[in-house]
Amino acid sequence: MKMTKIYEGAHQWVMFGRDENKPDNIIDSNQYIVRTANKCLLLEPGGTELFAPMMAAVLHHAPVDQITDLFASHQDPDVISSLGLWDQALSNAKLHAPALWEGYIRNFGCESIEYVPIPDNGETIKIESVELQIIPAHYLHSPCNFHVYDSQAKILMCGSVGSAFEPANAPVFVERFDVHVEKMRAYHQRMMPSNQAKRAWIDRVRNLDIDILAPQHGRMFKGDDVKRFLDWFDSLQVGTGV
Amino acid sequence: MNSQTKSQFIAVASITSELSAVMVVAKEISLAAANAKAIAFRAGDKAKGFQPITDFINELAKETIELVTNINVYALLLYRLTVNEYRRTAAYNRFEQVAKLANGAHYANSMQEPITHAKTMMQDCQRQFKRDVTQLLGQLEAVMHHARAARVIAANSRIEASQAGEYLQSLQAVAESVDKAAHTIHDNVQRCRIALSIYRNS
Question: What is the pLDDT of chain B when averaged over all its residues?
């Protein structure tokens, strides 16, 4: 499992992904942690198959008892089907996930972890001194979906938006945007069902100061590529992938 | 899922299936009892010995239904326990995998507590499963006892039916159906016991 520190300040962001040992028939996904002095938030914990390498990778950054918070943008298995295992490993943790999906996500096993439902209009969660905005991203692609914005680190964890599928040896950041576009097009046309939802998200996100766009699959965008991505996504007709 | 877990799931699921067949048969016995009572009533003195037997048959059917209903509730608990054990075992195995992969990680040692806890929980589930299976086998034995009693009643019914004159055939048919039902119950419950016996407390 590749680990890349993408922000280091009073707290840290680390991206995990490109697991070389994952089975070929399981899609690669990115996981992120926000690490503060005594706590650790795990964003998009991943699927069951990914649990062991992911947990092992996190142990380079935080002890088990300091993994206090999990976040799931939506209900898909590649995002959160490992919940039942985290549930048995963590003795004092909360899962921040969409209120709408609570009854669905609990199917993965959620007995000891506290499910903290996120309302449709989002909210703010605090990990020690770090305030994270939970931004609504409904219908992108799940009907109830959220992204996480850290105004200090200027990182937006943008879930499925910006996703692409890459081999295990691919770089973690986009290097040539014009080449990368073709890796994203079909996915966004098929997975994002609504131009209206896309427009609302872009309007919301353009008001944020973002250095890094961090999707759940594929490469991250930094610097000028953030604006390039927003412009490209803005002009893309979605819901047309069939 | 390993083959031991698979066969455990199959054993627990087969109990529910076998017992639902037992329930159907027990209801048939109850119906046969009602039928026998009506015939014995019509036969009057000719079937005097048969009349108390119909009450026995009915009582036996009722008790069997009650027992099987309780066992079904218990079988459901056993199924939940199997699911729980599967989850605990899966977690323990994954945690062991984490410990191997995290070799050299700064906080690798912090995994020890979840591993120990998962192992304890898994072993608790395994012990509980064996205890519950032993108890369930005891309950199944009670159903077998009822099936044996039903066969004795069927034999007595045949004797009484032979003295019932023109009602002989009808009453013998009742005796036959009770005997057949008792056989079915015995066989089905026996299959449950065989499926479960490998998991009982030694």
Answer: 88
> Which of B97, B111, B121 shows the shortest C-beta gap to A64?
B111
Residue B178 or residue A16, greater confidence: A16
Q: Does CATH number 3.60.15.10 belong to domain A2-235?
A: yes
The CA angle B101-B103-B105, to the nearest 5 degrees, is: 105
pLDDT tens digits for B97-141?
Answer: 999 999 999 999 999 999 999 999 999 999 999 999 999 999 899
Contact criterion met (CB < 8 Å) for A61 and B106: yes
Cβ distance of B98 and A56 shorter than 8 Å: yes
- Which of B94, B110, B113 is facing A51, going by the closest CB pair? B94
B87/A109 Cβ within 8 A: yes
Q: How many domains does chain B have?
A: 1
Distance CA A227, CA A206 (A): 8
Q: Which residue of B has its CA nearest to A62?
A: B107
Min CA distance, B124 vs chain A (Å)?
Answer: 15
The identity of residue B153, as a single letter, is: I
Whether residues B91 and A84 touch (CB distance < 8 A) is answered with yes
> Tokens at residue B117, please?
């806890």
The neighbour count for residue A194, using CB atoms within 10 Å, is: 16
Q: Which two tokens stand for residue B20?
A: 């639902």
B67 within domain boundaries? yes
Structure token digits, residue B27 = 């209801």
Residues of chain A with Cβ-Cβ distance to B113 below 8 Å are 64-65
The domain segmentation of chain A, as residue ranges, is 2-235
Confidence label for A106 from pLDDT (cuts 50, 70 and 90): very high
Closest C-alpha among A121, A35, A105, A112 to residue A72 = A105
